[in-house]
Design goal:
Elements (H helix, E strand, L loop, with lengths): L10 H21 L1 E2 L1 E2 L5 E2 L3 E3 L5 E6 L10 E6 L7 E4 L13 E4 L5 E4 L5 E4 L13 E5 L5 E5 L2 E8 L7 E2 L4 E5 L7 E7 L2 E11 L7 E5 L3 E4 L4 E2 L4 E2 L3 H6 L6 E7 L3 E8 L6 E5 L5 E7 L4 E8 L14 E3 L7 E3 L3 E3 L2 H5 L7 E3 L4 H4 L7 H7 E6 L2 E2 L4 E4 L4 H9 L6 E4 L3 E4 L6 E3 L8 E6 L14 H25 L14 E2 L2 H7 L6 E5 L2 E7 L5 E7 L2 H15 L10 E7 L2 E7 L6 H6 L9 H20 L4 E3 L8 E3 L5 E3 L6 E3 L12 E2 L5 H5 L6 H16 L3 H7 L5 H11 L16 H14 L10 H8 L14 H8 L6 E2 L1
Parallel strand pairs: 1-4, 27-36, 38-42
Antiparallel strand pairs: 2-11, 3-8, 4-5, 5-6, 6-7, 8-9, 9-10, 11-12, 12-13, 14-24, 15-23, 16-17, 17-18, 18-19, 20-21, 22-23, 24-25, 25-26, 27-28, 29-30, 31-37, 32-36, 33-35, 34-35, 34-37, 39-40, 40-41, 41-43, 42-43, 44-47, 45-46, 48-49
Helix pairs in contact: 11-13, 11-17, 13-16, 14-18, 15-16
């Protein structure tokens, strides 16, 4: 094979080269593979070009799950089980039929892709040396993955190469940089989505204003992330810790920055040619470094930047907000729905959201509307604790009222915010993000009155409207008080709970449950019944039993679920507190509790591994929210499969907060009475010491063992202590073979890398020393593959726990 960089060929070597091509033609005709293309020997159909070392292949490629009539010329790893393209020629102009199309050398010396009508769908678009004959030009695929157009008589004279025209991937040996003379910068551009390789919204390019630095850019216009300047001493970027570790002096990788008068570029080098390493900008704006693990038969992620997906510009599109710790991470704002529900359901949120109802003034052609009518027709919905969207304009306003009036006076105004200065938005709201930091912002989003039927803001209204409304509100309050006194309805115990939800009457709940006839389940505090509200909403109604216990759990649930909201936490919709009746109304979970699917399912009903793994991640995210993102740290204290409910899509929701404990942010631990369930209790409960949120981590770890094995830990303990599943896991992790832990029918669809990760997480969670247990936030990152986890030690006390579990029945302890 002729390689770029060799010396000029003699006439004798030309003959040998033609003989070489002839021999390869014979081989290619039988094997369907070769490493050169000429004008008389094009590539078509199922043929592929294979590099001499066999590392890469080029041919016609179709993305999995994509349209059947779209084919591309691509380079992929020839020795990797998963077809992984690293370069695509015609990403904007796919062809429909590879059998009637061909990749060949055109009469002008260019490499071209022709369809069946001989029309050019793609060309290398280069100029060959004057006087060159197209019969002397060949295309060679090098073992670096570089496709080169060169002369057969002088392979060192490269006419064109794919390394100078990257798509979304940087390979070892590929320069990525900027030509200082022309100002032209190399640019990696993401796919539109995982099934469509056409150019997407995100790209990587050198920073034109700062040396040794590159940028991630949205829509060719807005930089949204940089890893900072390259550190030559470390051989990496300081903001990518995992990269710094990989690029140690004795590492088989090296990353360098080169600068001279003509150019600047980054270069990744791999010392082991058998190692497959790549860096890619993915369709959702993250730059990812990946290495192929032969024993796992999969790609391992060693860095992803930015690490928080919500930091990617416009991750959720227009009129939506992004939250890192919920599933799905993107949600449409109130009054808006997904622009494309199909893409939204598949996890692609970039199309954003659109209004359910157009603003009244926009229906009038955007013209001026009388001020009073605008007050009647438009409202503002407030979103608190957010990072404000981009694109605001500052106007003069002395108060929030004046800011609201300024927005109402302009039909193009979409929203406003006031924080000593007034900011107005006249374009689509982009990049709105949940803000979990110390600084909080609120934004008021303009909606038609029909979208907020029960909310009427008095800000910015004429004085007579405010006075009249106040008198009316006072009258309504007096009537309500008289009605309450007349009906003698008791709401004892609610005076110190900040809640905002629907209040139900006992007789109404009797009606919607058909006198509590359909029982969904029972717990230590009462029973749960199915009900259907008048608007058709199905709900689950927990009827608390026992005056003392019912009141205690009632207050606990109200004080936690009444003030928080997360997609992985059960939603409390309302309550009833009439006399001795204490009831809580929740959203209905069609698939019931997790324990039913883990321990009571038949062989054909076993939850597939992917579903169980996603359930584990969802639970971890819900607990992360409770521990880290609420005003007070909320310790659930009773994490077990019975308290995990599954919705229609098997997304998990943590439920039953009757034993929950609130811990102020000024305190790191709290002393409380022992609570929880045997089999899931952390050692500190038994020792009587003060507890932290790490007791939930322990319970989660014990439950994760059950999610993996589909068997109860205490039942393992009953049969024999040496079969106690956590002990088996800890032992097999040390031996390096967790696959043997599973029954044969459970092994069929298990992702071995995820299984290994889950087992190590579970072992870390159940360490006796709470300081050795990870936080739930770190657990989420490990399970999602963003953080590597070390080998856990074997917890010595598990043997004792196994033996004691064999003598105890599964029961709850208040």
């Amino acid at each position: 094979m002729a390689h770029a960089g060799t010396t000029s060929a003699t006439p004798c070597s030309v003959v040998l080269y033609k003989l070489f091509i002839l021999l390869f033609s014979i081989q290619g005709s039988t094997a369907g593979a070769t490493d050169v293309i000429t004008s008389t020997r094009p590539l078509s159909g199922k043929q592929k070009l294979v590099s001499q070392g066999g590392k890469f292949a080029l041919g016609f490629y179709q993305p999995g799950g994509g349209p059947q009539d779209k084919w591309y010329i691509a380079i992929w790893y020839n020795k990797v089980q998963k077809v992984t393209p690293v370069w695509i020629a015609n990403r904007e102009t796919p062809i429909s039929d590879p059998t009637s199309s061909e990749l060949t050398i055109w009469t002008d010396g260019n490499l071209v892709l022709l369809n069946k009508s001989r029309s050019i769908f793609w060309s290398s678009n280069t100029t060959t040396t004057t006087g060159a004959s197209n019969t002397t030009i060949v295309v060679v695929l090098l073992n670096t993955g570089n496709l080169v157009l060169t002369y057969a008589s002088n392979t060192s004279n490269i006419i064109w190469q794919s390394f100078n025209h990257p798509t979304d991937t940087q390979l070892p040996g590929m320069k990525f940089g900027r030509n200082k003379l022309t100002g032209v910068s190399d640019r990696q551009v993401s796919w539109r989505n995982y099934m469509d390789p056409s150019p997407g919204l995100f790209s990587v390019a050198m920073d034109p204003s700062v040396a040794a630095q590159y940028l991630l850019i949205w829509n060719n216009s807005r930089p949204y992330y940089t890893p900072g300047k390259f550190n030559p001493q470390a051989g990496a970027f300081s903001s990518i810790p995992s990269m710094t570790v990989m690029m140690m002096p004795n590492s088989i990788y090296s990353y360098e920055y080169v600068e001279n008068d003509k150019e600047e570029y980054f270069l990744l080098t791999v010392k082991d040619d058998n190692l497959f390493l790549r860096t890619v900008i993915d369709p959702f704006g993250q730059q990812k470094g990946m290495v192929w693990l032969e024993d796992k038969q999969d790609w391992m992620l060693y860095f992803a930047e930015p690490s928080e997906k919500c930091s990617v510009y416009s991750m959720c599109g227009a009129f939506s907000w992004c939250a890192e710790n919920i599933i799905p991470m993107c949600s449409c704002l109130r009054g808006f729905s997904a622009q494309s529900p199909i893409e939204w359901s598949s996890g692609n949120y970039m199309g954003g959201c659109t209004r359910n109802v157009a603003l009244p003034c926009s229906l009038n052609g955007g013209g001026s509307v009388p001020l009073v009518h605008r007050y009647e027709e438009d409202r503002f919905y407030v979103a608190n604790n957010v990072r404000l969207p981009d694109g605001s304009q500052t106007v003069r306003a002395a108060s929030a009222i004046e800011s609201e009036v300024a927005c109402l006076n302009n039909c193009s105004c979409m929203a406003y915010s006031y924080n000593e200065t007034c900011s107005l938005w006249y374009t689509d709201l982009m990049n709105l993000k949940e803000n979990l930091g110390n600084t909080t912002n609120s934004i008021f989003i303009r909606l038609p009155a029909s979208e907020i039927p029960h909310t009427k803001s008095s800000r910015g209204r004429p004085l007579w409207v405010i006075v009249g409304g106040s008198i009316l509100a006072l009258g309504v309050c007096l009537v309500a008080v008289l009605c309450l006194l007349h009906k003698k309805r008791s709401f004892k115990g609610l005076l110190h709970i900040d809640i905002n939800m629907t209040t139900f009457r006992y007789k109404d709940l009797q009606l919607v449950t058909k006198t509590f006839s359909e029982k969904l389940g029972a717990g230590s505090f009462g029973s749960v019944f199915k009900g259907v509200l008048q608007d058709g909403t199905t709900v689950a109604i927990k009827k608390l039993e026992g005056v003392r216990q019912g009141e205690k759990q009632f207050r606990a649930e109200m004080s936690t679920l009444g003030t928080i909201h997360h997609v992985n936490l059960i939603q409390l919709l309302g309550f009833c507190s009439e006399g001795e009746h204490r009831m809580l109304i929740y959203e209905y979970m069609p698939h019931g509790a997790l324990d039913q699917h883990l321990f009571r399912a038949g062989l054909g009903d076993v939850l597939p591994w992917n579903t169980r793994y996603q359930i584990a991640i969802g639970i971890a995210k819900g607990l992360t929210y409770l521990h880290d993102n609420c005003m007070n740290c909320i310790i659930h204290c009773d994490i077990k499969p019975e308290n995990i409910l599954l919705d229609a899509t098997f997304s998990p929701k943590v439920a039953d907060f009757g034993l929950a404990k609130l811990l102020g942010r000024d305190f790191s631990r709290v002393i409380t009475t022992m609570r929880g369930t045997i089999g899931y209790l952390a050692p500190e409960w038994i020792g009587g010491t003060a507890i932290t949120a790490k007791v939930d981590v322990f319970s989660y770890g014990m439950m994760l063992f059950e999610i993996i094995s589909l068997k109860r830990n205490v039942e393992h303990g009953k049969r024999c202590a040496d079969k106690f599943f956590p002990i088996l896991v800890a032992t097999k992790i040390q031996e390096g073979d967790v696959h043997e832990l599973l029954d044969a029918h459970l092994r069929r669809d298990v992702n071995l890398e995820e299984l290994d990760r889950a087992c190590m997480v579970a072992c870390w969670c159940v360490q006796q020393d709470e300081r050795s247990r990870p936080t739930m936030g770190v657990i989420v990152q490990i399970l999602e593959g963003l953080v590597e986890v070390n080998m856990p030690p074997v917890p010595r006390y598990l043997q004792v726990l196994a033996e004691s579990a064999g003598e105890s029945m599964l029961s709850s302890i208040e």
